[in-house]
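Ticket closed. Logging final result for DUF2267 domain-containing protein.
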Amino acid sequence: MLRALGHQLTGDERVDLAARLPTEAALAFTSQIPDPQPLTGFVKDLATCTGTTPAVARWDTGAVLAVICHLVGTALLDRILNQLCSAAPNSSRPPDSFGQDRASRARSSP
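Final structure:
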């Protein structure tokens, strides 16, 4: 999942996320060069890359984003999600896209 994010995030979001991740995670994330091709949809692309279903990819993405939210805070997570959504043509951000509901619950839990 972090490698998939590494393929997509650019700019300040990429730099800020890498700086806040634990070293091993940051290395996995930054080892990937951002792909200049637009997304068809982050979860759909992740499912294709990993050979899993979109439902499993959506669950995995939500779980990872919940942990990322704890590490980096809601402001950076929102910027990351906005960049992923804007990179995909015709993409919208409905509830639970990219595990948004799960990440929101993680923000509010102790």
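The longest helix spans residues 54-72. No further action required.
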